[in-house]
Amino acid sequence: MYLTGVSVLEQGPIGDADSLLQEAYSAACSGGIVMGSVVFNGQPVRPGKVVCVGKNYAAHIEEMASVPAENMVVFMKPATSIGTDLFAALDEPLHYEGEICLLIQGDEVAGVGFGLDLTKRETQAKLKASGLPWERSKAFTGSALFSEFVTAPEDLTQLGVELMVDDQLRQKGHVSLMLYPPDVIMSELRRFLVLEDFDIVMTGTPAGVGPVQAGERFHGRILDGDRELISGEWPAQ
User: 27 versus 103: which is more confidently predicted?
Assistant: First the structure.
């Protein structure tokens, strides 16, 4: 499954205002389309924002040598973070995080799809150490890749996610393993923000994250029990 368009390079590291990098970024933008759309039941739609939940699987918290947060961790990606191509590096190596993703319509979960939350882990570590926001490591152009979205089942408690890389299972998760399942996520989000039609909620990643290697083929899918609902595939460049 591929959408139309290209991803573009992001500006340089923290505090880097180097004009050559800025010129390269502008040149990349002028040569392609900045993606911001996904497909829902065969029709293109434009999310206004991507809302992400962090630290939602205990095993992932452990593999990151972190600790659970007191409250649900939420961060945002702009619509321009939605890309189509999977890169192994954009200024620095990228790490993958496969997730169950929810598409909103009428303030309810209308669709489900698979998503890759791409992360500049080195930059993220620097930002965390300095107590700074994560946007440079999480919200760059092309940092969110999605399969098509299909109608969500009425019961979201049986949703699962799998990520295969070169036909080997890298990640496997299920709503039952979430610290904040979808109904709790929606309740928490409604307390402080408005979810508009076609916004996307990324529900967090299970254990098994790691670096993207050029030449690998990523295949992610969303399950309802044992039944596959939707999948997406990306070759890493």
Answer: 103
Three-state secondary structure call for residue 13: coil
What are the domain boundaries of the chain?
A: 19-235
Q: Which of 110, 143, 172, 148 is nearest to 232 (CA)?
A: 148
CA distance linking residue 41 with residue 108, whole number of Å:
16
Higher-confidence residue: 40 or 34? 40
Residue 65: what pLDDT? 64
Name the CATH code of domain 19-235 (choices 3.90.320.10, 3.30.200.20, 3.90.850.10, 3.30.2010.30). 3.90.850.10
Among candidates 219, 228, 110, 105, which has minimal Cα distance to 159? 228
Entry pTM: 0.85
Q: Are 118 and 134 in contact (CB under 8 A)?
A: no
The CA-atom distances, in angstroms, between 217 and each of 48, 172, 208, 234 are 29, 17, 16, 6
Q: Using CB atoms within 10 A of its CB, is residue 74 exposed (0-12), middle (13-18) or buried (19+)?
A: middle
80/16: higher pLDDT: 80
